[in-house]
Amino acid sequence: MVVWFFAGGGESEVEGLVPFLEVNFPGCNFERKTPIKSKPGSKPGRGSGYGLTGRGLAKQIKERLKSCMTQGQLGDLILVIDDLDCHDSDKKEGMFVAAISSVAGADEIPRYVGFASPEIEAWIIADWDNTLARHPDFHERQAGMRDWLSENGIGFDEPESFSQLNKYGTSCDSKLSDLIIESSQEKGCKQRYRKGMHTPELIKKINPDTVSSKCPHFKKLYNYLRDLCDQREPQIN
Fold it and tell me: What angle separates helix 216-230 from helix 11-24, to the nearest 10 degrees?
């Protein structure tokens, strides 16, 4: 099962998502199509697609699919994962489906759109005991960070419900990742939370069952891929 993977967001999200998918769904082969991979040792360049989300990501998906289709090698599934950023999930999913369907040939490939709601850091919050609580940069101060985050509106049992769409209709009023960074500063951690470094590290540590129990959008994505990829795992006689 070859999965063409289109990711939204920055380098931190992508670098954490790919290993997470490979470890948890070994029956599928994930081929990352966006953002475009940078060469080893280089920073993401202009046009790489890092930081694109929503409409920007939909446009890039359309462009990349056109290129993929001309190469004559088809994927078995088109997978899109993006931060929901407090938007309506049905409308945002429809935007991605429309972009895929507009490409000749790609419209015949099965597709699935999943969301990290409101950001991928919600998964880290949901499985706090396996992520920030154990990380050597934060474990000594993690209790204080957790208290601070609770006081600032983060629900650890339902982190996907954090914040609401801002008055401009562009993204959440408050960024979950920004509050995690601020909590690490407020409580005097030896290391300030760095999204580009810590998020991909911690995504690899989450227990999917724990996150599924607290994050409905994650559960839907996880169950879909688990059922799909498990069916494709080779049988051992």
Answer: 50
